[in-house]
Amino acid sequence: MKLNEIQLENDYFEFDEKFYHKINPTPLNNPHLISYNKLMFDEIGLDYEEAKNEDFIKFINGDKLLSGSLPYAKAYAGHQFGYFVPQLGDGRAINLGKIGPWHLQTKGAGLTRYSRQGDGRAVLRSSIREYIISEAMYALDIPTTRVLALIGSTHPVTRYYGVKETAAIVLRMSPSWVRIGTFEYFARQKNAKVNLTQLANYVIKNSYAYLIDDKNKYEKMYYEMVDKTAILMAKWQAYGFMHGVMNTDNFSMAGLSIDYGPFAFIDYFNINQICNHTDSEGQYSFNNQPYVARWNLEVLANSLKEICEVEKLHEYLKTYFHVQEKEYLTLMTRRLGLDISKSNDSYADLIISLLKALQTSKTDYNQFFYELTKCKNSDEIRKVIDISIYRQALNIWLEDYIKAREEENRDFTQVQNSMKKVNPKYVIKNYMLQEAIDKAEEGDFSLVNDLLNIAQNPYGEHKEYERYSKATPLEFSNVKLSCSS
Question: Containing domain of residue 247, as a range?
């Protein structure tokens, strides 16, 4: 399919205009293509050759609107670090329309009604980070928004301390951009019941279509959201992912990871790691993430009280930790090559003791699982200790692990094959992204595209970048990032 053959649909204008702002993007100066994502080109049936067309850059930049496109920004509210902000919204993101199940949105596309003191722009460094991590998450089977393409420019922007940077735009794709904060906003307007009913119907149509004719569809939409969020948190925790800004306006009603800011995959394991340097109290620390998500779901329940029996929602929310912990235990036992059906309770204890040992031993979290995956016998398992800086605690744990493997008495080759499906050789770390950013700021986008390939193929071999499969260099480990983008 050619770009000009795309027909976009708009399904948000059924709402009152106070819930959105129709506005065209504001193009960047001298835009140029940095990268495009062939996987999502395939998803929507777009020919690769179209990426070489000047019209494609104009489309991302907002100079060219596709047939049917009526750009707009959405209003929403949100709890940010626990404090309610009554009006937020797409302050630099503009929705272009929908193709199939995918809503297209350009991030960094200019000022909207909801920009507040912002400039409506996204800088190159943060745009590269979101572009690559979206695909890395997808390849690890962690629910996420996706990306179609990334453009840069000579457009100047100023961030902290007056530093001059250049602006970029990421074209993001998602089955839904509705957030918990969207429901908070609708619930606080006049005619809240009518508004919430309309919004809930919209979310169900987009994300839970099998509930459309269910007489208890609004409650069940919430139940689905609880389950999806619990599973999402389990996957974040199992792979050591930290979001950094778990505000309610950053929580997708489709149960996806969205709005990548100061994110990180844990380097040397620290259960209380904070990746956002503005999070001085550690509210969104790695260990707190499942608890924050549950709190956000409680906020959602209270926002739905006009259209749901809120007591039922609160009652169902009690199942959240059961779902989250069960999924987490399943994922972790798979990563360890163990059979959860053999010993549920003792394996939970083994996982808890592993986390303590990893922290004490100063071990790179995801590298540890990959090194275990390579082991062909118990003696090789014992040698995994070589990747740790302090070894005593992990050495003791490895003996307990070997004992568990021996009690299961499963073939090592069979276990290896199973572990290879869940333990990637490559996990995208912030120091890798920074290397790509540094090159990109000098006009070299080769590493952006190479990292995209690694992100999309984390279980493969990338000989040129073998060093990325090793532990993060100490000087770059567990660095905190800012929200500035």
Answer: 181-328
